[in-house]
Amino acid sequence: MQGSANFARLKDWAKENDCWIEDPKSLGVFSDRGSENEVYMCYDGIHVYKLNDFRYSDDNLTPFFERIPAHNQYFPDCAYDFIGFSQNRDGKVCAVLRQQLVVNAREATPEEIKAELERIGFHAEDNGEYFTNGIHDIFDAVPNNVMVGDDGNYYFIDTIIFKSDTDGLDTYKKFSPNYRKSKE
Fold first, then answer.
1. Could you tell me where in the chain the CATH 3.30.200 domains are found?
2. How many CB atoms within 10 Å of residue 111?
3. 3-state secondary structure of 73
4. Architecture of domain 5-100
């Protein structure tokens, strides 16, 4: 996937259009690595930067860029700001997203996640593997990706969203290390 000419062209395009971040360490301090994001704690102490390696997009980046406004629509308290592009520690071209840091939070329970998603119009499918409202499907809504702030609000900080009926479930199953682990 990342070896394709498309990603080399994306990097060239980003440099030509002044939206390439040469050194991710200029954003903050490396903090963690998830299945698709490398996370940097911003020097301002109120944001995180995520270098998303397009794992759930194959060579077609359209679903990735559709995910950002969908996420922001459903979860405005932890919206993503698209900043530009960079290269992660593995040398993969990534989108750089900024998100407000959720402080004093705990992981939500699966029951809390289900109840909150139902409250905003989603219902569980495939034994709770994902949630849908018929417009979008939400995957990876698990405790380490959904936080409860000390304000009582739910923060869906790292879920995966696809338009319904676009083979999102198959894509998720194909690329998700969490899905593969749960089936072994």
1. 5-100
2. 8
3. helix
4. 2-Layer Sandwich (3.30)
Q: Which two tokens stand for residue 20?
A: 């390439």
> Tell me: the pLDDT tens digits for 115-138?
999 999 999 988 888 899 999 999
Q: What is the pTM of this model?
A: 0.86
**What is the DSSP secondary structure assignment for residue 24, as one 8-state letter?**
G
Q: What is the chain's Cα-based Rg?
A: 16
Q: Which residue from 173, 98, 112, 97 is spatially nearest to 142, judged by alpha carbons? A: 112
Structure tokens at 98: 């900024």
Task: Answer whether residue 56 shows pLDDT above 90.
Answer: no
Under the banding of pLDDT at 50, 70 and 90, the label for residue 35 is confident
Q: How far apart are CA 87 and CA 85, in angstroms?
A: 7
